[in-house]
Structure prediction request, 151 residues.
Amino acid sequence: MHGEGWRWFFEGLHGAERPTTVRTQLERARSLIHDAYDEPLVVPTLAKQAAMSQSHFIRAFAREFGVTPRQYLIDVRLQHAKRLLQTTTRSVTEVCMDVGFSSLGSFSGRFSRDTGVSPRAFRRTLVQSLGILPACPPVPACFLARYASPT
Prediction:
């Protein structure tokens, strides 16, 4: 009973909050990756989000999710790049910058290693083999008003 009294005392001091688990801390960092994948995220920022030292964060993240935080970020960026290449007419360079890569060369290299083809070939394959065309950009209303034929 004596131990229960101390637990009540400490729970009262901390608002009866449950202690944060390592998984919860890592989920905060993983959420940041998903929310800000297009920004220049670095391990120190992610480790701070998880309230861990950098080395402990890298080890814990890899143990929990099977890949390092850096590789996870790259994977998220590449998934978004694939979606943009499939659904937009943005250039490969624009897609590269949109998903957070700072170098077209590193983006193309990583993309090629992940998919087996370059970003441009990835898009071309979709168009040729599947007949999928990226979404066309919207036509401005003023252009339609001037050049559209009345029917």
Remarks:
- Residues 69-87 form the longest helix (19 residues).
- DSSP finds nine helices and no strands in the chain.
- The chain has a mean pLDDT of 83.
- The radius of gyration is 24 Å.
